[in-house]
């Protein structure tokens, strides 16, 4: 898989990242490697599943799209003849889902035919899902690397380390969907050069020394450590490939680079070293692909038919998996309709935003969509999906703003109602805290809550002083007005009537005395005390009679 022992050499530069970290980016995917990987020995436990490579490919694409990762798939074209043997060994070592095919001797054409069939079905699924795929004029990772080096994609997804030899800047390795947060290994050419002192030319030199897909054996007797120290000792300004080419010259003067005499001696035992065709394969440019030249359409009906026939999925299950892809494709295409990207907007209409949602720590909306015209299998008349807030806002800013404004209006009204309710509750509490005179029915004698009276007495005194000051100011400022009669507003206390017999025997004098006490200018507490004293006298008179 690329250059022998290159991944262990690059291990110090390895970084890990979650698949979610790739959100909003575009990646070039080595489709041929995925097909080999998805038919590996590890999947033999799923032999009963139909078309396992299509099932796994669908869910990998689904995982990328729902995270707003835009994949561009690259399949290899006709590989060099020397690569045919490598492909056959890969399929045999990985073990196909139909291992009986490998129990008998096979020609290269049979192996290639099997691989081409898997590749054809995979490309058909990719096309029906509205994604781009291109066929390279050679190795798939070569075109992936070219797209990456030209800035058309942010990274390459492959386990072939020779993507760096083809010019890739960033490679994601060990792609899988294990766990809720799939983790990938990330390598970048920037880190490789800064931390290990290896540039593209030096890695091509390692391929010649250690071995690669085009020369599996490399230079006999030259191991990883010796080859690495040698290429690291060569300064960047010196072209290491030219140096290797000069070894054939009998007049060449050996330098002091680490292990050069030993490696040169072993390399010259190979007639073609350094193999120019390998250097040219890794070095030549590939600029014959225009990713904006092909229109891509997502067709629900055709995709549903394909999945139903190939994977035998039920209609409801298909809708649950396809519709979120369909709506996301619609939103991203809608947002990019004015850009240079020539994608076709899927024909689906948004009805309304239902509510806010949080998914994987991201702000989202639950959105209701109208039913597709060609969907005759789904029972409901609408679809409900969860969409990223930023994605929906980019496609339909007016709808999002309207929804947010309505929610703010409802929230403001609720807050106002809550404020009024709290104010009413507070007023009720103030009323309930007024001093009350309670009659003890056992002795028909009023009982006063003096704790409340103390507070109310202080408030009454303050209010009386304020009223007196206000009235004096009014007299000074308005000399023409008549003298204002001062009124002392006092709280009236209503006593419960003792009983009907007591009222009949009450004399006029006590009542008159009570009125005079209530209307007197005496302090509040003293008036209450006199009223109690008068009431006690009445009770005693009644008892003696």
UniProtKB/TrEMBL annotation:
Domain Chromo: 348-415
A Pfam family annotated for this UniProt entry: Chromo_2
A molecular-function term among this protein's GO annotations: four-way junction DNA binding
SUPFAM superfamilies referenced in this protein's UniProt entry, alphabetically: 5' to 3' exonuclease, C-terminal subdomain (SSF47807), PIN domain-like (SSF88723)
Gene Ontology biological process terms, A to Z: DNA repair
Cofactor(s), names only, from the UniProt record: Mg(2+)
Keywords assigned by UniProt, alphabetized: DNA damage, DNA repair, Endonuclease, Hydrolase, Magnesium, Metal-binding, Nuclease
Keyword presence, Magnesium: yes
Family to which this protein belongs: Belongs to the XPG/RAD2 endonuclease family. GEN subfamily.
Identification of the protein by name: Chromo domain-containing protein
Organism: Romanomermis culicivorax (Nematode worm)
């Amino acid at each position: 898989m690329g250059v022998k022992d290159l991944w262990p050499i690059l291990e110090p530069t390895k970084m890990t990242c979650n698949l979610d970290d790739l959100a909003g980016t575009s990646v070039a995917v080595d489709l041929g490697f995925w097909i080999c990987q998805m038919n590996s020995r590890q999947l033999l436990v799923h032999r009963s599943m139909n078309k396992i490579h299509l099932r796994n490919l669908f869910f990998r694409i689904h995982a990328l799209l729902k995270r707003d990762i835009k994949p561009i798939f690259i399949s290899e074209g006709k590989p060099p003849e020397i690569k045919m043997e490598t492909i056959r060994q890969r399929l045999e070592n990985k073990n196909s889902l139909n291992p009986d095919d490998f129990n008998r001797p096979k020609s290269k054409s049979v192996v290639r035919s099997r691989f081409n069939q898997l590749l054809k079905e995979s490309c058909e699924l990719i096309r029906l899902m509205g994604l781009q795929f291109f066929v390279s004029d050679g190795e798939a990772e070569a075109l992936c690397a070219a797209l990456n080096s030209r800035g058309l994609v942010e990274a390459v997804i492959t386990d072939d380390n020779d993507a760096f030899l083809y010019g890739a800047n960033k490679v994601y390795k060990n792609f899988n969907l294990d766990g809720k947060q799939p983790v990938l290994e990330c390598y970048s050419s920037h880190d490789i050069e800064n931390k290990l002192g290896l540039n593209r030319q030096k890695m091509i030199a390692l391929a010649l020394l250690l071995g690669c897909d085009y020369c599996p054996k490399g230079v006999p007797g030259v191991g990883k450590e010796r080859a690495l120290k040698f290429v690291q000792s060569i300064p960047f300004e010196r072209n290491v490939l030219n140096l290797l080419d000069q070894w054939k010259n009998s007049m060449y003067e050996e330098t002091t680079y680490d292990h050069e005499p030993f490696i040169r001696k072993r390399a010259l035992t190979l007639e073609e070293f350094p193999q120019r065709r390998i250097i040219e394969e890794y070095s030549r440019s590939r600029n014959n692909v225009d990713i904006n030249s092909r229109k891509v359409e997502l067709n629900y009906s055709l995709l549903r038919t394909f999945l139903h026939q190939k994977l035998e999925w039920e209609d409801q299950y298909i809708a649950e998996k396809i519709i979120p892809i369909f709506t996301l494709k619609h939103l991203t295409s809608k947002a990019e309709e004015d850009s240079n990207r020539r994608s076709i907007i899927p024909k689906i209409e948004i009805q309304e935003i239902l509510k806010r949602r949080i998914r994987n720590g991201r702000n989202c909306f639950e959105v209701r969509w109208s039913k597709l015209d060609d969907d005759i299998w789904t029972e409901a008349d609408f679809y409900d999906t969860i969409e990223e807030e930023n994605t929906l806002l980019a496609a339909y800013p007016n709808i999002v703003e309207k929804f947010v404004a309505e929610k703010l209006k409802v929230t403001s009204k609720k807050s106002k109602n809550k404020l009024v309710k709290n104010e009413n509750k507070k007023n009720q509490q103030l009323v309930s805290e007024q001093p009350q005179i309670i009659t003890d029915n056992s002795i028909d004698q009023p009982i006063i809550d003096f704790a409340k009276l103390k507070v109310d007495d202080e408030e009454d005194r303050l209010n009386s002083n304020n009223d007196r000051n206000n009235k004096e100011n009014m007299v000074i400022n308005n000399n023409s007005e008549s003298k204002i009669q001062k009124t002392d507003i006092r709280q009236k206390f209503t006593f419960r009537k003792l009983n009907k017999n007591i009222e009949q025997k009450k004399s006029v004098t006590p009542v008159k005395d009570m009125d005079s006490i209530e209307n007197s200018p005496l302090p509040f507490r003293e008036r209450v005390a006199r009223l109690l004293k008068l009431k006690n006298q009445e009770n005693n008179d009644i008892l003696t009679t």
